[in-house]
Amino acid sequence: MTSPERQSVFRRLAIFHLLLVAVVGLGIEFLPRIPLANLGHALILAGIIEGAALVGWRLTQMPKSQSLEFLLVSPIQPRRVFVAEAVAGIGRLGLVTFCGLPLLLAMTFDGKTDLTDLAPLMAIPFLWGCITGIGLSVWAYESASVRRWGERIAIALILAYLVVGVLAAERLSAWLSVLPWQASETIYRAIFVFTQYNPFGLLEYWLSPTRDATLAAERALLVAAGSIALVLVLLARGAFRLKAHFHDLHYRPIAARCEDQSRFIGNRPLAWWSVRRVMKYSGRMNMWLAGGFGLLYASYIVLADVWPVWMGRMVFEIFEKMGGVPAISTGLAVLAAVPAAFQYGLWDASAENRGRRLELLLLTELDETDYWGAALAAAWRRGRGYLLIAAILWLALGYSGRASPLQIAMAAIAGCLLWAFSFAVGFRGFSKGVQANGMGTLLTIGMPLLAGCLIALGIPVLPTLLPPGALYLALAKEPSLTWMLGPILTASLTIAIAVSARRTCINDLRAWLDRNHGNRAIS
Hints:
With about 525 residues, this protein is mainly alpha-helical.
């Protein structure tokens, strides 16, 4: 807790947690159509984000430092090093989680929740934050072959989910009726357990006004026990893999088994390197999930009138009630903007690593165009798939007649502006040395939340001033001249920030190096 950078991340996440609980609580208070289960879902999502930032980030970056070797060859066992670092992150995650307790107590005194709701609302998000952080670390620690096979298994499970949970849905029993009754009964029970005994299903049932208290308590105990067991298993696996992963990073022989890359590098070595860096963990599983559901949803939009009776509709109808294509495409555009805002391609894990890299790069003939192009190539390569899925949904909406060509064009403009604005702000943060976590979180979580609140409260004009709000309203409402105010403002700010950041990039990087490199090592 004495590290200034960790303190800064801790404070920002604590504020984010408080604001999230406050916004969701106010929404439940003043908007009766918002179910109480949304509070549980929001807390789980917050726990996942906070666990990744407070636990996973530190554990994944730790082996990249060669200074870890002094601990690995000391009497302190590598497994103890991993567990100690994990416990430190878990402790900070616990403090952030408990920041929301006063607000949850206020909701209890107001009659929105019961005192018995506090335990699952605090424990389940905390446990799944731990699972996320440690799980991401274990995934990064595994060898390339294990990750490759794990990815294949995960993609197969995603395809199974899309078939069972989306296409079959409420018609699942009819689908299973063609199988022998023993097999259909086993499959049905397995799917039921999976859907009910997971953190989201648990809190949704727990906060339901029609719940059975005994059954809810039984499910909570089982989910909590399973979550604790999974945390312990991941801890053991990460502790076992730490030393091997360190050796893979720093001592693995470089084998010339891949094809010659010189023709791909060309005259843009920094762009080639930044793209390879962000694609090391390409996120294909997320793309398969988003792309598979997007294609199915687009098919349903186009073929809704002739949708076969033996295929499910319930999942699509649920998403229609939750905002439909306007909400989903806005979420996809925000996901596409994540690598643009965080600048994964050029950002380094620590000030020391960033300083060492800049010492070399600033001695070369690379100019601001090279840095801009490298950041642009990495961000676009990582996020373009989500924009493509959003475009497919927009086209399906236009083909079905549920949106006019003007609305589709407005949505496309708003989506591109959202991505461009996030990239411009992210690149300026990179050149200025502003912490990527804080800026990226503000752009990809804070701004969409604020836009959603303004839209839910029915405030006119203001939501369009935020890029996510402009994208959502382009499809959710009829076109109007007032809508143009937001995109015009966003485009103006994007151009101004981009021109300034690109022009001063080299000078800003040199200034940051002069201010930081050496001072931190000495202190």
